[in-house]
Amino acid sequence: QDLFPLLRSFPRARLRIAGAGDYEGELRRLAAGMANVEFLGQVHPSRVRELYAGAVAVLVPSLCYEVFPLAPVEAMANGVPVIARRIGALTEVIEQSAGGLLFDSPAQCRAAMERLLESPALGATLGTNGRRAALADWTEDVHIARYLDLIESHRTRRRAARITPDG
After folding, report:
1. Measured between alpha carbons, how far is 89 from 51 in angstroms, rounded to an integer?
2. Can you tell me the distance from the alpha carbon of 152 to that of 165, in angstroms, rounded to the nearest whole number?
3. Are 4 and 30 in contact (CB under 8 A)?
4. What gap in Å lies between CA 141 and CA 157, rounded to an integer?
């Protein structure tokens, strides 16, 4: 909600909001009359890839601390750069992946949006970085392999602890 004033003065930026929730009515009220803000409501999963394909970036302006932010990871897996507020795990995800830009204030958010609108090459680089990180670190297969490795290392330590010099 703190970004709507920014978007009101930055008509070149177009915001598409996917999803619905309890706060949607208030957000719609705040965005009333803004031609550059579109509420999509609930989006079928089959359409999500299409939305990513047309995006310059995914904006994650969370005001609260998130443990593991799925939206930016999903965006990066689809090769889309992320512009995220420097808060909680968002900071770590963006910094580790080099898949996006961070902001602390609406003015910094606008500067990040302008950079990506003006430099498709930067967007492509960030998108490639994010996709690489998402595939290397955050896929289901990677997590399962790491989980199984952890179990095996625990089993190996338990077996070794049971074997004593006395038998």
Report:
1. 24
2. 23
3. yes
4. 24
Closest CA to 91 of 120, 68, 58: 68
Q: Which two tokens stand for residue 73?
A: 């990871």
Sheet holding 58-60, edge to edge: 58-60, 82-85, 100-103
Nearest to 6 by CA among 139, 149, 110, 129: 110
Average pLDDT of the residues in 9-37: 93
For the chain, percent of residues with pLDDT exceeding 90: 81
Judge whether residue 70 has pLDDT over 90. no
Integer CA distances (angstroms), 67 to 87, 91, 123, in order: 10, 11, 26
Q: How many CB atoms lie within 10 A of CB 74?
A: 17
